[in-house]
Design a protein that fits this description.
Elements: H1 3-26, H2 31-49, H3 59-66, H4 70-82, H5 87-103, E1 117-118, H6 126-133, H7 139-148, E2 152-154, E3 159-162, H8 174-196, H9 219-243
Helix pairs in contact: 2-3, 2-4, 5-6
Length: 276
């Protein structure tokens, strides 16, 4: 690719990196440490997505594609294979359990609200909820995560009450940082997919509603409005996804896919230094 074609790609990359660099600097991560992570990501993507006929890309081709020497390609391949954090699986399981608690008829009362349930026992219990939606994450570990995120509370009689239909780890929890990475990856995959899709191909939905002249006095009002309307949208979509998920008791002719939508708050303060 010549320099004229690379320029908009590199400019877009710099813009996309700015919020990530803010996180790195506040976490004390230096450029050199980020350089190593970037090399691993280059090797990982080149290996997984640029092979011939669906096979992993060989080391020589990865070296040619990335500009990283063969010795470092081997090193970063090993890092990619050994350093995959298990936390996103736990986060996905936590969200599935919460969604099931709000959507599964057995766990919802006559008024449509999620029922208080015991940890164990026949019928509607957390153990049964975990069996249906928890995947391979240990039940006690999952329940501990939900307690830590203040998504559930336990009464004096041992029954569990769900407090939120959304799983967000505590502020200081490393899992919250990993969740942020997965959100950025999801958004990035959609944007890049649409950029590279052949003409006439159906694109993935990606839209924004924004205005750069809003009176900042209305910020709290906007937050409340977005919390209410955004949550309504996500609850409706979550219900649709639950209705169309693969029945775990039946064989499916095709492997299930991960499908969903993300909604996020956009805010850009004019004065420098106002961001978190």
């Amino acid at each position: 690719m010549d320099s004229k074609k690379k320029f908009p790609v590199l400019t877009a990359c710099r813009l996309a990196l700015r919020p990530l660099v803010r996180l790195l600097l506040r976490s004390g991560v230096t450029w050199r440490e980020f350089e190593e992570v970037a090399k691993t990501a280059y090797v990982e993507v080149a290996t997984d997505e640029f092979g011939v006929r669906g096979r992993p890309t060989n080391i020589s081709r990865v070296a040619i594609l990335t500009g990283i020497n063969r010795r470092d390609v081997r090193k970063h391949r090993a890092l990619a294979e050994s350093d995959t954090p298990p936390a996103p699986r736990a986060m996905n399981a936590a969200q599935r359990v919460l969604s099931g608690w709000f959507q599964d008829a057995e766990f919802v009362g006559p008024d449509g609200s999620p029922r208080d349930i015991p940890v164990e026992g026949a019928g509607a219990s957390f153990v049964e909820l975990w069996r249906r939606y928890g995947g391979d994450i240990p039940m006690r570990a999952l329940l501990k995560e939900l307690h830590a995120a203040e998504s559930v509370s336990e009464g004096s009689d041992g029954t569990l009450k769900v407090l939120s239909c959304t799983y967000i780890p505590p502020q200081a929890d490393p899992a919250k940082t990993l969740r942020a990475g997965s959100v950025m990856e999801d958004l990035g995959r959609t944007v890049v997919y649409d950029l590279l899709a052949p003409p006439g191909s159906p694109l993935r939905f990606e839209r924004r509603a924004e205005n750069d002249a809003v009176d900042p006095r209305h910020l709290n009002e906007f937050r409340k409005y977005l919390d209410e309307q955004g949550m309504k949208l996500l609850e409706n979509i979550d219900a649709w996804l639950t209705e169309h998920q693969v029945d775990p008791g039946k064989e499916s002719p095709r492997a299930p896919i991960r499908l969903g939508v993300g909604v996020y708050h956009i805010q850009d303060d004019k004065e420098r230094g106002n961001g978190p």
